[in-house]
Amino acid sequence: MWVGLLAGLSGNPALATNLEDVYNAAKTNDAQVGAARAGYLATRQAVPQARSALLPSVNASADTSWTEREFPGAISPINGQPIPREEFNEHGWNAQLRAPLLNMSSWHQVRSAKANVSAAGHDLSRTEQDLIVRVVQAYLNVLRAQDLLDTTQAEEAAVKRQLEQVQQRFDVGLVAITDVLESQAAYDAAVVRRIQADGDHSIFFETLTTLSGEYYERLDRLSEKLPIVNPDPTTEQTWVDTALATNLGILTAQEQLSAATRTVKARRSGHLPTIDATVTEVHSVTGSTNFFNADVTDQTVYALQFNLPIYSGGLIRAQAKEARALETQARENLLNQQRTVIRDTRNLYQAVATDVVRVRARVKAIKSAQSALEATETGYEVGTRNIVDVLQAQQRLFSSQFDYADSRYNYVINLMRLKQTAGTLEDADLYELNTYTDPNDQVVRLVSLKSTNP
């Protein structure tokens, strides 16, 4: 029977898509990159927030009140009459301009915030760079799944033909029943592998949809013209040196260490004095009798305020210790990042170099497996080889064909990761790879799975 697969999203499907199309959609729709961009915009606000402590500020307030006042038994010294009861409203406002003149702690906090913003920028770039690798890997996984499906389908067809031939031979008494059973077992195993490949095929298409937010029915395959060459530059140490200078993880860790160092200075500066200049304007209106017989008062006050923290319960000292510990942590994180990058760069360089040799070897392996199969089939015909030998030779040939395609995809992924580790990966690398996709050779998304009745 046929089991339908519901694999569509709302909207029209994208047809005949290449790697560049998928990447451009992912740059707009990938949730990880979107979250990283929003986080970077949020982090950028740390600088104006820290700088605000060094800039002038203006505060204003206003008040109003109603007063009822009595003077029981009080006699006015002026006219000898009892002082009358008073009822009056008082209201007014005041405004103050404050300008910091000396505040070392806030100045260091601004520098720390700038370093944190720079670290966040590198981190965003790393996320965007990682998107290139994720898209390439997801795209190639679809092609890899198609190659596996092609291999399993070809194997299934070949083993089925072999089973039919063996059955015919058995029917006329040329072979034993064991040959039929061996062929049937091989065919059943090939069917299982083909069914699994069917399922994987659709799963990897879904991964692309998750990245890009688009539904794809067709993807261009990689052309055989794709050059499989050693990394450029060709020396491992050059890659390591480049990675230590431009790896985005290292650059992020360096800025985080710089921010931590500035925070230490800011915390230590908590013991230093601060100086502010203030201008205060006061306006008040009262209905009460005063010495000057005036109900409106205006006052302007110019002042310098000096503040020296002497003791705050150990707060400043504890904050300084915390900042020093965080600085040490940032320094160790940087060291770990550098060591990790060196290791990964060397490993990926060797992996790419090995992939180049492996791809060339896979081509020879296919030819050898083909020759071995032909020889084994001939031997079976003349009775020097058995059916198991033929089935194994067939499986080796199909395995060699898939291994060749698989090694090409591994080469591309490892090369992209090497450039990512070195900090040199950019959109142009993906666009160059896209020039080696073939619109005349496409992977078509499966819309149904063929399965046998239980």
Describe this structure in words.
- The protein has 454 residues and is α+β, with helices and mostly antiparallel strands.
- The protein has 2 domains: 11-53 and 108-271 and 313-449, Outer membrane efflux proteins (OEP) (Up-down Bundle), CATH 1.20.1600.10; 56-102 and 273-308, Outer membrane efflux proteins (OEP).
- It has helices at residues 19-29, 31-44, 46-51, 104-171, 177-212, 236-246, 248-268, 315-382, 387-422, 427-434, and strands at 2-4, 57-69, 86-102, 218-222, 274-286, 296-307, 437-444, 448-450.
- The strands form 3 sheets. A 4-stranded antiparallel β-sheet has the order 2-3-5-6, with no helix packed on it.
- It starts with a strand and ends with a strand.
- Residues 1-14 and 449-454 have low confidence and may be disordered.
**Largest sheet, order of strands side by side?**
2-3-5-6
Number of separate helices: 10
Q: Runs with pLDDT <50, length 5+?
A: 1-14, 449-454
The largest sheet, given as strand count, sense and whether it forms a barrel, is: 4 strands, antiparallel
Total DSSP E strands:
8
Looking at the overall shape, the CATH architecture of the largest domain is: Up-down Bundle
Shape: elongated
The assigned structural class equals alpha+beta
Fourth-level CATH superfamily of the largest domain: Outer membrane efflux proteins (OEP)
Q: How large is the share of residues in beta strands?
A: 15-25%
The helix-strand sequence is EHHHEEHHEHHEEHHHEE
- Summed over residues and divided by their number, the pLDDT gives a mean of 88
Fraction of residues in helix: 55-70%
**CATH topology name of the largest domain:** Outer membrane efflux proteins (OEP)
The CATH class of the largest domain? Mainly Alpha
Task: Work out the count of structural domains.
Answer: 2
Overall radius of gyration:
39 Å
Distance between the termini: 10 Å
